[in-house]
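To whoever is on call:

I kicked off a structure prediction for a single chain this morning and the downstream step that reads the tokens threw a length-mismatch warning. I double-checked the sequence; it's 112 residues and nothing unusual in it as far as I can see. Pasting both halves so you can look.
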Amino acid sequence: MSIAASASLVACGASSSSGSSDTAASPAAATHGSEKNAKPGKVSANNAAQNEITAALKAAGVSNPDRWAHEVIEYRPYAADDTKLTSLRKNLIKHKPGEKTIDKIISVLTVP
């Protein structure tokens, strides 16, 4: 591929052939799909797409972010008054990820 063609692909936001996308972990992508009042870098536990949650988890250093994003989605919806995501914590404990991993997962999520 020529340098000009490579530059065009990068400028257009194309992802590599491995299926990864550098834009998925960007702060803008991490807040996409979240509520208006969400803190920067956080995504909505109720509304964000799985790939958005995965990107936020990956950026937070969570091991196996795809799996945990799937779990977050599986236990939806979360009550708006459950701002500490206590119900999600209880469900994640069943999978024995460890307290540090649960804390990282919760740290990137918000509820309306």
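Update from on-call: the warning came from a stale cache, not from the record. Cleared it. Sanity check on the structure: The chain has a mean pLDDT of 76.
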